[in-house]
Amino acid sequence: MKRTLLTLLAALVLLPALADEGMWLPSLISERIDDMRAKGFRLTAEDIYSINKASMKDAVVLFNGGCTGELISPEGLLLTNHHCGYDAIQKHSTVEHDYLTNGFWAMSRAEELPNEKLWVRFLVRMEEVTDRIAAGETAAQIVEKAKAEGTGYKASVEQMYYGNQQFLFVYEQFDDVRLVAAPPSSIGKFGGDTDNWIWPRHTGDFSMFRVYASKDNRPAAYSPQNVPYRPKKHFSISTKGVKEGDFTMIYGFPGNTQEYILSDAVAYIAERSDPAKIAVRTGRLDIITKAQESDPALRIHYAAKHASIANAWKKWQGEVLGINRLGTVASKRAYEEEFAAWAQDKPEYRSVVADLKAEYDRIMDAYFAYEITRETLSTLPAAYTPEERAEECFARRKFAEQALWRHAFREYGRCPKVYRTPSYAEGMARYKSPEAYADALFEAVWEGSDSVAMQPAVRLREETKRMLDHISWMLGTKSLRNLNSKILNELYTTYIKGLREWDRERAFYPDANLTLRVAYGSVAGYEYADGEYHKPQTTLDGIIAKDNPEIYDYDIPQSLRDLYASKNYGRWGTVIDGRRTVPVCFLATNHTTGGNSGSPVLNAGGELIGINFDRTWRSTMSDIAYDPAICRNIAVDIRYVLFVVDRVGGAGYLLKEMTLK
Ligand code: ARG
Ligand code: GLU
User: Fold this and answer.
1) Contact indicator for 628, 609 with CB cutoff of 8 Å
2) pTM score of the predicted model
3) Catalytic residue from among 273, 522, 597, 619
4) Cβ-contact 651, 112 below 8 angstroms
5) Could you tell me the CA-to-CA distances from 405 to 151, 316, 439, 461 in Å, in that order?
6) Is the minimum distance from the CB of 614 to ligand 1 under 6 angstroms?
7) For the packed helices 422-431 and 434-447, what is the interaxial angle rounded to 10 degrees?
8) What are the tens digits of pLDDT across the range 230-285?
9) Which of 416, 410, 413, 412 is nearest to 471 (CA)?
10) Dist. CA 406 → ligand 1 center (Å)
11) Is 577 designated active site?
12) Ligand 1 test: best mutation among 64, 87, 196, most atoms within 8 Å of CB?
């Protein structure tokens, strides 16, 4: 009896793939399908990914290289986030037709708006090519062959597990993608930067496009003769709603995670890099916010800049908190020590942990210098353009711009001395303070002075660029998104190979690298603080509670207020916790990251229940270590999307081409 209990306990402790961590390769999903089905999924591996029949992958696209989108009709209708369609919506907006502010609803195919340089990519197939490369074929040859297979085909060979495995991805790219619908920003961006990375959330973060193709359904450049693309597969939409515990699956293109890095790299992130970048950005945001508060024109001028600085700034704060709370540095260190002990008598792996640590020592200062330079001097403009100068608010920007220059020069002082540019040392010696030095250079750039007066600024710029190139050369790689080097990469190839031999119970999945992945989990709230549980669903009542015409981020359209007052929700009204309301957003445990924006959130039957658009900020350490207790992704409930299209946009005709279940 006692024995059985112990065995049972041991089995529980060793349970692989703890909870819902993981971003799985679709072509290998059969390895996970039993676990998925045990958690409620009702379809097969072939339904998710198949090269023999239409499968879910045929309804998912990489949207313009940074987001995900999904097909929701047999006529090429595509759904993604508002923040993913933002550039396209903005480009079509003018003072007379301000689609960003008022929304855009094409009332017929003829009104759908073409977008230059907007593309989507479907995955035709993926296959492992590790053996072909080992046999002497080059990645470039494999890619060329694949591209020749069809019109609009793109291909790439991507490294998994630091090159232990290589996969060919073959895509079909469509370049005629037209804007169909976007809600007003006061819905699509409701909550703005205030609510960004925050739960409870009430953002209707969606927009709609349509993929167009030639008459024979092939990719084609924009032409009025093109017709709506007929996808092999589109998602049916479930209008039945979600509840806590329901199975969820996310199919999309996560961009960048680092789940296997050593404790040294985690410590670098949590103790050195993130805190420094957060501090530098706090200063920039203070300056910009002050300018925005002083002047309505400046509020608009700096809006996009503020949003992009604040997005990573908030994310990093959650990452540091999460890593510290989880004790990731200590747990990784213990893990490495165990591995190193196992590797003692294995020549291939014996020194790899020590070698990795030595390489980190060699490159850490250089990489930190790279990051600090990018966050400071590299953010300053080479010139103020004639277009900017022509803007009505240009002169009023001067105090803010000057403050940003001073701030950048001051904060660049965080850069380790050996990696500072010679100009900076000379300038500091001459002007005695970063502020005086910044003022001298700023004045020339601001005035658009002659080349003699501009010389010191030009020289500093060129030297800065040269220093960044030098660092990149030192690290032996151009891909500097993470603390990284050519040598580290090679060592990690060995380390991961060793880990997979040693840690048999661990469910390994390759780091995100903007290739198609499946993540599965369930709708779930979480304990936000001691005694404070956050429910997984928000509603229209919460929007009304936040609504405030005085606060830009919370000023909803009058039409939404009217709908709330009349309770004229039509079929979208639902009783939640005893109140008749409209569902807005929900939380789930799917392991996601940047790039998963716009990804379809699917139920156990593979029907669309939401669109992924964010995580809670304290979840963001899941890029390094996933914690099932706290990591949650945020989705907009598909019923809110349909409600807004139908009731706010008056574009209910779009629903007719969808498959509503
Ligand atoms: N945090 C989300 C992401 O990382 C949304 C960003 C856009 N929204 C915003 N309010 N800035 O992309
Ligand atoms: N908003 C992110 C994106 O644009 C997704 C949020 C995350 O990092 O999980 O991809």
Assistant:
1) no
2) 0.95
3) 597
4) no
5) 49, 23, 8, 13
6) yes
7) 110
8) 999 999 999 999 999 999 999 999 999 999 999 999 999 999 999 999 999 999 99
9) 416
10) 28
11) no
12) 196
